């Protein structure tokens, strides 16, 4: 695990241990909590126009920042429970995506990958 993720992993381990929350942090429960936090992030943008979603005021930006942090912290905790190196997983997934979505075939298109190579 890279240094930033290791720091967050260790900090989340300590935070949870101090509160005796590890008993609640099964992969299933963490994945469920993650979806709740992702929904809270979506809520920050609910009813905003495209332009408004780009031009957030400081209060809105603070709320988005907090929700992004919550999502990331749950991801770090879940990855830690499953012994997944987030950085390595992201690099591998980016390689898969590059193969799945060749730039010369998908540039400027939002179509699903089924329209390209399998």
From TrEMBL:
InterPro entries reported for this sequence: dCTP_Pyrophosphatase (IPR052555), DCTPP (IPR025984)
Region named Disordered: 97-118
- Record carries keyword Hydrolase: yes
Q: Where is the composition biased (Basic residues)?
A: 109-118
Listed name of the protein: Nucleotide pyrophosphohydrolase
Q: Which UniProt keywords apply?
A: Hydrolase
Q: Which terms under GO biological process does the entry name?
A: nucleoside triphosphate catabolic process
One of the record's GO molecular function terms:
nucleoside triphosphate diphosphatase activity
């Amino acid at each position: 695990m890279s240094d930033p993720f290791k720091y967050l992993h260790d900090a989340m381990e300590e935070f949870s241990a101090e509160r005796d929350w590890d008993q609640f942090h099964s992969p299933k429960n963490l994945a469920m909590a993650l979806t709740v936090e992702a929904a809270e992030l979506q809520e920050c943008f609910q009813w905003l126009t495209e332009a408004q979603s780009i031009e957030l005021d400081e209060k809105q930006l603070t709320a988005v920042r907090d929700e992004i942090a919550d999502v990331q912290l749950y991801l770090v905790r879940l990855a830690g429970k499953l012994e997944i190196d987030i950085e390595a997983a992201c690099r591998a997934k980016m390689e898969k995506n590059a193969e799945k979505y060749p730039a010369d075939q998908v540039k400027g298109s939002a179509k699903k990958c089924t329209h390209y190579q399998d």
